[in-house]
Design brief:
alpha/beta; 2 domains; six-stranded parallel sheet; 16 helices; 16 strands; about 20% strand; binds adenosine-5'-diphosphate-glucose
C-alpha cells in the first residue's frame, strides 16, 4: 500500500452515496446527518476539490413543494449536491428493493428477501438519476467514489455516460456466496453494474472472492487473481477487486474518552445503574442482523441459571431506531421489547432492573461515556459487513481494561482475534464467552485489549480512505 494520502491529492473527488451528509429539518433547517460515512470521509475531503451527491431525506413534491434553500457547503469546502427523490421512489428503491431484497439477501437471508419486479425497476430508475447527476457535475478526469448496496448499478451507467472518469465502488455490507446470490432475479445486472467501476472494494477477502466467483459463473469472465478483464466496444479494461476493511477515527474516540466530563459521566452512569460490579453493554442500530435478541437470550439465561446475579450485574442495550417503515424492522423491535420486558418481569425486583433498554439515538459524547463505563461489550451480529461499534469500544478503553465478546460473522472478527469470538447461533457458547470475558483475570483482559487497540489504531478510517483512493488513482 502506498503511504497515507500519497498520490491522489490532485484529482477532484466526487462521492456518490444514498444519503447526503446533511438532512433537512423543517424547524432547524439543514443539520449534519447521523452516520459514519461523513466522519470517515472528512479527512480525505479536507483540502481537496470535492463534491458529494446524495439524497437529503426530504421528499420531492409534485408541485415543487415549499421553498427550501439548497444544502450548505460541507466539511472542508465540499459542495453538496442533492438528488431529489419522490415518496414513491424512496418506497420502491430504498425501502423495497434495497432493504427488502438486497439487504437481507446479502446478510445470509436471515429474513426472507422479497423480490418485486416493479421495485427493481424503481431501483434502476433511481440509480440512473444518481448516475446522470454525477455525469453532469463531475469535473473532467475526476475520481468518483460510489458507495454501497443502494447504488450497485451506478458504476456501469456512469461509465457509459462519462468514460473519462476513474470510478471506484465500495460495498459496506457483506457480499454473499454463490449459493445465495444466485437467487437474485437481477444478478446479471448487479454484477455488470459493479464491473463498470475500475476498482470494486469489499470489507473482507471472502466478499471479494465471492464476487470473483460470481463473475466467473454468471458472466463467463476469467478473473486472474484480483483482476477482471472486461471487453468493451472501446477495447478491454481491467477492474481490480479487493478488500479494504473500514476503520474508525480511533484517536478521536480515545481523546473524547479521556476528557474529564466523559470520565465523570461514565461514573455517573455506573451510579445511576446502582453501582453494579459488572456492566454489560450492547449498542446497535435496531436491525435483525445485529443479533440483539441473541445476547438478550444469553444474558437472561445466565441470570436464570444463577451464573450472573442481577444485584451485581446489569446489561444495558442501546438501540437506535432504524428503517421503521420496513415491516421486518417493526417485527424485530417487538421481539426485542418482548424479550426485555419478560426478563425484567421475571428476574427483577423493586429497584433492581437486570436489563436496561434504550430505544433512542445517542449523542457521541454520551455513547463514549457508555463505552468507558462498560466492563464487557457484547457484539453478536448474525452477519455484519464490518461492525464499527466493537472498534469504537476498543478505542475508548484507554486504560486497556474491559472485554469484547464478538461474533465470528462480522468483518471485524477477521482483524480482532483477541476478542472473545463467538458463534451467535450457539447460545451456550455465547453464554460461556460472556462469563469468560466478565471473569477474566486483569492481566488476561489487558493482554487482549492492548492487542485489539493496536489493530484499531493501526487500521483507522483515514488509512482505509487513503488506501482506497490511492488504489483508485492507479497505485499498485
Ligand atoms: P451499520 O449497520 O449501521 O453500518 P455499524 O458499523 O456498527 O453498523 O455502525 C453503526 C454506527 O452507528 C456506529 O458508529 C455507532 O456508534 C452508531 N450508533 C449505534 N447506535 C447508536 C445510538 N443509539 N446512538 C448514536 N449512534 C449509534 C454499515 C454496515 C457495517 C459497516 C458500516 C461501515 O452494516 O457492517 O461496519 O456500514 O462500513
Amino acid at each position: 500500500m502506498s503511504p497515507r494520502g500519497a498520490g491522489h491529492e490532485d484529482s477532484p473527488l466526487v462521492v456518490v452515496a444514498n444519503r447526503l451528509p446533511v438532512e433537512y429539518d423543517e424547524e432547524t433547517g439543514w443539520r449534519p446527518a447521523p452516520g459514519g460515512l461523513v466522519t470517515a470521509m472528512e479527512s480525505v475531503l479536507r483540502d481537496r476539490e470535492s463534491l458529494w451527491i446524495g439524497w437529503s431525506g426530504r421528499y420531492e413534491e409534485a408541485d415543487g413543494g415549499p421553498e427550501i434553500p439548497p444544502p450548505p457547503t460541507g466539511a472542508g469546502g465540499m459542495v453538496l449536491d442533492e438528488v431529489p427523490l419522490t415518496r414513491a421512489e424512496v418506497k420502491g428503491y430504498y425501502e423495497g428493493c434495497s432493504n427488502g431484497a438486497i439487504w437481507p439477501l446479502y446478510h445470509d437471508a436471515i429474513v426472507t428477501p422479497v423480490y418485486h419486479r416493479t421495485q427493481f425497476q424503481t431501483y434502476r430508475r433511481v440509480n440512473e438519476k444518481f448516475a446522470r447527476r454525477a455525469a453532469e457535475v463531475a469535473p473532467q478526469g475526476a475520481l468518483v467514489w460510489v458507495h454501497d448496496y443502494q447504488l450497485q448499478l451506478v458504476p456501469r451507467m456512469l461509465r457509459q455516460l462519462r468514460p473519462d472518469l476513474r470510478i471506484g465502488f465500495f460495498l459496506h455490507i457483506p457480499f454473499p456466496p454463490v449459493e445465495l446470490f444466485s437467487q437474485l432475479p437481477w444478478r446479471r445486472q448487479i454484477l455488470e453494474g459493479l464491473l463498470g467501476a475500475d476498482l470494486v472494494g469489499f470489507q473482507t477477502n471472502e466478499a471479494a472472492l465471492n464476487f470473483l466467483r460470481l463473475v466467473r459463473r454468471f458472466l463467463a469472465l476469467q478473473p486472474g487473481g484480483d483482476r477482471v478483464v472486461v471487453d468493451e466496444l472501446s477495447g478491454s479494461r481491467t477492474v481490480r477487486v479487493e478488500a479494504f476493511p473500514i476503520g474508525i477515527r480511533a484517536q478521536d474516540y480515545a481523546t473524547l474518552a479521556d476528557e474529564i466530563p466523559t470520565i465523570e459521566r461514565a461514573a455517573e452512569i455506573r451510579r445511576d445503574l446502582g453501582d453494579p460490579h459488572t456492566i454489560l453493554l450492547g449498542v446497535d442500530r435496531l436491525d435483525y442482523t445485529k443479533g440483539i435478541d441473541v445476547r438478550i437470550r444469553a444474558v437472561t439465561e445466565l441470570f436464570e441459571d444463577g451464573e450472573l446475579d442481577p444485584e451485581s450485574t446489569v446489561f444495558v442495550q442501546v438501540a437506535t431506531p432504524s428503517r421503521e417503515n420496513v415491516e421486518e424492522y417493526q417485527r424485530i423491535r417487538d421481539d426485542v421489547e418482548l424479550l426485555v420486558s419478560r426478563a425484567n418481569g421475571d428476574l427483577g425486583k423493586l429497584g433492581v432492573t437486570p436489563i436496561h433498554y434504550l430505544h433512542q439515538p445517542m449523542p457521541r459524547a454520551e455513547l463514549t461515556a457508555m463505552y468507558v463505563a462498560a466492563d464487557v461489550m457484547l457484539v453478536t451480529p448474525l452477519r455484519d459487513g464490518m461492525n464499527l461499534v466493537c472498534k469504537e469500544y476498543v478505542a475508548c478503553r484507554t486504560e486497556e481494561t474491559g472485554g469484547l465478546v464478538l461474533s465470528e460473522f462480522t468483518g471485524a472478527a477477521n482483524q480482532m482475534h483477541d476478542a472473545w469470538l463467538v458463534n451467535p447461533y450457539d447460545i451456550d457458547g455465547v453464554k460461556r464467552s460472556i462469563m469468560d470475558a466478565a471473569s477474566a483475570l486483569p492481566q488476561e483482559s489487558q493482554r487482549r485489549m492492548t492487542s485489539l487497540r493496536h489493530g484499531v489504531f493501526e487500521h483507522d478510517v483515514e488509512r482505509w480512505a487513503a488506501d482506497f483512493l490511492s488504489r483508485l488513482q492507479g497505485g499498485s
